[in-house]
C-alpha cells in the first residue's frame, strides 16, 4: 500500500523537490549576501545602526517579505493541490467504489495516503521555513522584530503547524464537497482567511498582554504625531523585540490623567526636537500594551499546537466518516 501510494504521488513529489531546490538556491545566495552586508554595515568599528537599518530595509525588506509570503502560502498550496484531491478526485471519477472494495480497508487506505502526503507537506514547508529563518537571521537580529505579524508566521516552527492543518483540511473539504476544483478553491480561501484572523483576533490573546505606563521620551517613541484629540501615533515604540499591541496610545500628563488640548499645545511644534524636549520636561506618559520578546517561542509552540489540534479534530472526523457507507 505504501509503495503504491508513493508511485501515485511521485510526480507531485518530484515537482516539489524541483521547486524546493530552486528556492533553496535563492535563499542560500540571499542569506550569504545579507551576512556580507551585516559584516560591512553592522559588525564594524564606528558603524551606525540607524544607517545600517536604512541600507538593509532598502535592499532586503522586499525580497524577504515576498519570500515570507511564499512560505506562508506553501502550506495552503500543498493543502489545495495535494490534500483536497485526495478524496475529491476519487469521488469525482467514481474510483472510490473500486478502491474501497479491495482487501485494504478504507481506514488503512486513508491512513497511508494522508500520512504520506502530510509528511511530504511538512518536509517541504519545514525546509523552506528553515532556509528563510537562516537567511533572514541577520536582518531579524538588526531590526529585532521577529514577533511582527508579517514575520512571525514565516519563521521557525509555526509553518509546520500550518502544513499539517492545510493537508488535513484539504482532505476534509474534498470529503464534503466531492469535487476537486471547488474543494481546492474552498481550501485556499479558508486558509488565507485563517491566516488573516489568527494574528488579528487569536494570537494577541494567547497570553495576557503586559500593560505598563512609560515616560514619553525620544527613546521610547519615534515618528511622533499628536492629533487634536491628544491621541499619540508612533511608527515605533521602543520595547526591544516585543510585539506592541497598542497602536494609538493616548498621551497622559505627569499625574497619569489624559492630557488636555491646552497641555499638548503648550509645547511648540515648529521644531520637532524642541517639541520632544518640551514633552519630556513636562513628564508626559503613555500606556503600552505588548507581548514581551521572551514569549516568542511560547507563542510559536502555542500556534503550532492550535493548528495541530484543529488538524486532529478534522482528521478524526474524516476517519469517522469514511467507513460509514460513502457511495
From TrEMBL:
Q: Does the record carry Methyltransferase as a key word?
A: no
Transmembrane ranges, per UniProt, are: 12-32, 64-88, 109-137, 157-177, 184-202, 304-322
Q: Ligase among the record's keywords?
A: no
Q: Which UniProt keywords apply?
A: Membrane, Transmembrane, Transmembrane helix
The domain of life is Bacteria
**Protein name (Swiss-Prot/TrEMBL):** Transporter
